[in-house]
Each structure stands twice: as structure tokens, then as C-alpha cells.
Prior knowledge:
Elements: H1 5-16, E1 22-25, E2 38-40, H2 41-45, E3 53-57, E4 59-63, E5 76-77, E6 82-85, H3 87-96, E7 102-105, E8 108-113, E9 118-122, E10 127-130, E11 134-135, E12 154-164, E13 173-178, H4 186-190, E14 195-202, E15 205-215, H5 221-234, E16 239-251, E17 264-265, H6 281-299, H7 307-318, H8 321-338, H9 342-352, H10 357-365, H11 370-383, H12 386-392
Parallel strand pairs: 1-7, 4-13, 11-17
Antiparallel strand pairs: 2-6, 3-6, 4-5, 8-9, 9-10, 12-15, 12-16, 13-14, 14-15
Bound molecules: flavin-adenine dinucleotide (FAD).
Amino acid sequence: MGAGPAALCIASELVQQGLKVNAISSNSPETPWANTYGIWAEELASLGKESLLGYRWSNTVSYFGNGLEPKGILPVSHDFDYGLFDQSLLQNSLLEKCQGLKWQVETVDKIAFKKRETEVTCISGNIYIARIVIDAVGHKSPFILRPDKGPVAQQAAYGIVGRFSSPPVDKNQFVLMDFRPDHLNEVELREPPSFLYAMDFGQDIFFVEETSLACTPPLPKKILEKRLYSRLSHRGIEIEEIIHEENCLFPMNLPLPYLDQPLLAFGGSASMVHPASGYMVGALFRRAPTLAKELAESIEMKPPLDSLTLAKRCWKVLWNPELVQRHRLYQFGLERLMSFDEELLREFFIAFFKLPKKEWSGFLANTLPLPKLIVVMLRLFYMAPMKVRLGMIGL
Ligand SMILES: Cc1cc2nc3c(=O)[nH]c(=O)nc-3n(C[C@H](O)[C@H](O)[C@H](O)COP(=O)(O)OP(=O)(O)OC[C@H]3O[C@@H](n4cnc5c(N)ncnc54)[C@H](O)[C@@H]3O)c2cc1C
């Protein structure tokens, strides 16, 4: 179910395993995706998919100073390439791997679990029956069951692709986070922090996005929009043309689904968004082949397994104990970060990006094995200034 990056990723791997797959999605799989997906180039290279990048920046920086002369305006260089996927290349490369798969453009209404199989009823009244169903309808899935752990922190952002009176970032530059707060007044400084995520697209076109890492309740669009405008005008920059606006809102710490339910999930509905960074596409590529392999093997078993048994076997692979533990650590980290004011957050990130590159990038991609992740988190704790340490332990 679904036709976003998660659905196409898992469907393509299932087809590669020789399974008979039917896909149901409210929109055609050829409809261009609305979001633009970014990723660190090395993460994509490790998956052998660097050619899917539409843009790539080597001049990648962040600003964690106070924005005041002289030290507070210096950028931290990440010295690490970042890229944006070429949307249609990414989508088409996955669709090509889905050859033979049947698509139904329908909206799923209800799912019922029969003795052996799963029955999917669409709004049209059409019913489809399958050995197992995978929910890849995104984080708003009404079908996947998960514990209620209270309000969910959301990443919110408001961005503009456009032309400006002067460049908001240097030529060929990518800014991961500009946390400089010198455009904010006393009241705004006490509100939940946000940062600028920005890049040069060439031909005098730039993308600037005011982003709140995670917040409960989410920072409203009008606050992010106001902050973006005041950040730009504080630097003497006017917006000359808006080519595209982006409104972003998605959960960062959605609780993990129950792993004993008969409906399997993948992507946003399976809580696969990295709770500390908000990224997911790399994880989709890494985790889809293993899940598809497990499903292909389980489906061949004799006597045939029912939907519940199949799903339980697959859930155990998708969210194996190691990944569950890592997820908990990231969620803990995010909760601590959300309690930081803007100054503490800037100090935290200064320490974070002093970690060896392999460590901070592995942390952000969720590719560090659990023992290493613990070591990295401990190292960060010892490297951080005392007030950040106290914040990390909630004092
Ligand atoms: C604005 C934005 C920017 C993001 N940027 C990045 C990024 O740079 N890098 C990154 O790694 N991650 C990013 N993310 C996080 C994450 O990768 C995305 O949310 C991603 O789109 C989730 O993929 P998905 O396939 O799980 O769900 P979606 O992309 O939401 O796709 C859901 C699909 O299910 C279909 N559907 C929904 N309901 C039904 C139904 N009832 N019946 C049938 N079909 C249904 C929809 O039509 C759609 O095709 C971003 C998220 C947002 C919102």
C-alpha cells in the first residue's frame, strides 16, 4: 500500500525476490513526489547509488556562533559532500525494478485479517486478498497499531526556492544548519529554536528553509515564515521571486509499531524516520533487501504461514533488537535536545561536529553498530562543555 519512496523501495525488492506483488496507492506511482530528499553523498555511495543525485555540494558548512563579530560568524566546515536526489531519477530507477508489478490506483479503506490471509477493502468497494500486506502509506497510517506515548515531536519547516537581491549563501554552498540568532528579539530567543537549511541551486536560484528540528507542539508555519523573513532582512537580503514554497511537517519520534500485528509496514508508517535527523531514504535502501529476503523465504514455508505469522517474522527482521535499541537511544537524544534553549543547542552542535567525521556521519545515518553508537554518545558527553553535559542528563 502506497507509492512513496518506501512503497517503491520495498516493492522493487519483493519483485527482485520473484514474489507476486500487487500495489495499491491513492495516486499513480508515476505521480512526481512532492518532497525533495537530501542525503550525505558518502551514505549514498556506500549503497552504490551516487548517480541518483541531482545536486551535490562539497562546500558544506553550518553556523553555530551567536552571529556577532568576530568569532560568532565563522562557519564550521563539514568537509563532507551533501546531495539532493534527482527526484524523477530516484522514482524511475525504483519503478524500473518493479517490472511486472500490478498497480491499482485506489485508496485503502479497511483491512481485515482472515484465518490465513488479509483482506483489503478500498473506498471504491473493491476487495483485494493477499498472503501478507505491507503498509507504506506514510506516517499518518490509520492502519498500523502503535502505543500511545503522548504528543509526538514534529519537524516543521517553511522554505522558499527563489531569487534574492543578494545570495543568501555563498556560491556552490550548502548550509546544513545556520543557528545564528542575532536577528531574534528577547522574546523570540526564549521560544523553541529554529535554524536555516539552505543551498545554492545555481543560476541565481537558492533554497532557504527555516527549520525546527523537533518540537511538541510543532512550530507553526507563520512563526517559521516570520523568522525566515527576519533572518534574511537582517542580512540585508530581499526575496525577489518565489519559484516554489515548501511546507514540511512530519513526526520525528513516532513510537515504534507493535511488532506482533498482522499488518507489516515499511517507511514512515513503520517509524523508520531517524528520530535525531529526520532522514529516512538511506535506511529504506539499506533495510528493504533484508526484509524482502525474509518475506520471500517465509512465504515459501510449508505448511503455508498465515498473515500474522508471516508479519511477525518480518517485523522481527525490520526492527531487530539491535535496531530497536539504537532507535531508543536516538529518541532519548532527541528528547534531551528538545529541552535545550538556543544557546545550549548551538554549544551541543559545536561539540557534535567535533566528533570524528565517521562518527557524526554514522550517527546521522544510523549506520553505527550499537556498541559503537554507545561509545560515540559517551565520547560526545565527555567532549561537551559542562552545561551541555548537564542538559544531556536532564539537570
Ligand atoms: C517535506 C519533507 C521533507 C523531507 N525531507 C527528507 C529528506 O531530505 N531526506 C530524507 O531521508 N527524508 C526526508 N523526509 C522524511 C521521509 O523520508 C519522508 O516523509 C518520506 O516521504 C516518507 O516516505 P513514505 O513512502 O513512507 O511515505 P509518503 O512519501 O508519505 O508516501 C505515502 C504514499 O501512500 C499513499 N497513500 C496514503 N494513504 C493511502 C491509502 N489509504 N490507500 C492507498 N494509498 C495511500 C500516498 O498516496 C503516497 O503514495 C522528509 C519529509 C517531509 C514531509
